[in-house]
Amino acid sequence: MAPAWREQLAEGGRLVLPLEIGGYTRAVAFERRGDVLHARKFTHCGFVPAQGEHARTTPVVDLLGGELQVRFDDGDPRAVEAGGSSARAAP
Fold it and tell me: Which pLDDT value is given to residue 24?
């Protein structure tokens, strides 16, 4: 969450954020009470990922000389990079 969003949210104000939890995106409505944001409701949804300064990077590993890419939304790609690739191109 961008710090400015939290700072600008008035007491009792609501903010809806897309949060990825367990591989699924949910729109979560938060309400500010004092210094705490309380989750009020959520629903499943789809969002374009954040851009710019607060964007989350997704590691990508090239396989098969760049013909195949594996994205790691969660987890550590170093295990794949260190162990080599068992992927093979079709003959």
Answer: 81
List the one residue out of 29, 27, 21 whose CA is nearest residue 45: 27
pTM here is 0.53
State how far the Cα of 81 lies from the Cα of 17, in Å rounded to an integer: 33
Residue type, 61: V
What confidence tens digit (pLDDT) does each residue in 71-91 have?
Answer: 776 656 665 554 444 444 444
Task: For residue 81, give every residue at least 6 positions away whose Cβ sits within 8 Å of its Cβ, in sequence order, or none.
Answer: 61
CA 10 to CA 17: how far, in whole Å? Answer: 16
Sheet strands (E) in 2-67: 14-21, 24-33, 36-44, 60-63
Name the residue among 58, 71, 57, 65 with its Cα closest to residue 85. 65
φ/ψ of 37, rounded to 5, equals -100, 120
